[in-house]
Amino acid sequence: MSGSYRKVEGIFYPQDSIRCFYWIEGEKNNPPMLFLPGYTGTYAEVEGFTKLLTGDFLVITPDLPGWGKSDAPKEDLNLQYYGRYLGKLLDHLNIEKINVVGHCMGAAVAFEFAYQFPNRINNLILVSTPYLNNTIRGKIFSLLAQASSNVPPIIRPIFFFWRNRLFQSVMDIFSLKFKTKKQKLNFILKTIKTQHLQNEKAVEDAWNSMVCYDYSKAKQIKKRVHLIHGDEDLLVSKNQAQRFRSLWGDTTLDFIPGSGHIPPLESPQSLAEIIKKYLGNEKNP
After folding, report:
1. How would residue 5 be classed by pLDDT, with cut points 50, 70 and 90?
2. CATH class in words for 7-137+163-279
C-alpha cells in the first residue's frame, strides 16, 4: 500500500466473479489492524467503533464473503473458508503480518486465521468469542446445526428458530446492554428491518460452522492472545470466557463492566481503550 489513507473503500476478487469489499481507515504509517465484525455484522454497523482506533492504527475492516456488500461464493461459508479468504486479502493488500481483532463470529474467524497462518499474526485479540463448548446451549445448537444439514432448504428455518423476528426481539430486550433505551430500541428496529437483506446461505453456513467449531486448536496457536468480554454477556457467560482462557497457558482476559455480547456497539469507547492499551503504539517487526 502506498500514500496516506483516511478512508478508502476497496474491492477484492478472491475468485472469478466474486466481488468482496473492504475499508481502510487511518494513516499509512500506523501499524495495520484487521477488524472482523461479529455474526451478521458488517462494516456499516461497526464504522463508528473502528473510527476510534484510526488515530493509532491503520484499520482494515472487510465485509466477509456473503455479508454486507460482499458476494457469496458457492463454497460452504465456514470458518475455514473465511480463514483462507483473509490470507488472500492480506496478499492483495501486500501485508505480511498484522494485528487481528475479531468480535463474536469475527473472533472465531480470527482464531481460525491464526491457526492457518500463525506467521502472519502479530497480536490476536478476541472479543466475545462464541465459545459454548461443554454447555447445554452449545450442545443444543450443535445438534440443531447437524440436523439442519440433512433437510430440504424449505424446512431449514425451523432449525434456526432464534432468527424469528419476535423471538429475537424479545431476546434482545433482555440481552442488549446499551447505555440508553433509545439505543437499544434503534438497534432492535434496525435488525428487524434489515434481516431480510441477509444472505441465508451465509447465515446458515457460518452459524453451523461456528457452533460446531473445534477450539482445541488453541494449543497450537503460539501467538500473543488477549481476550475481552462483556461482564454482563448473557449469550456467553463470564465463566465460559474463563474456560476459554484456560485453553492457553499465558493469556490475558479483560471484562468490560456493564457490557453485553456486542461491546463494539454497547461499549465502543471502553473496548477501544482496552485494545489500544494492550497493543500500545508498537510498530510491526
Report:
1. low
2. alpha beta
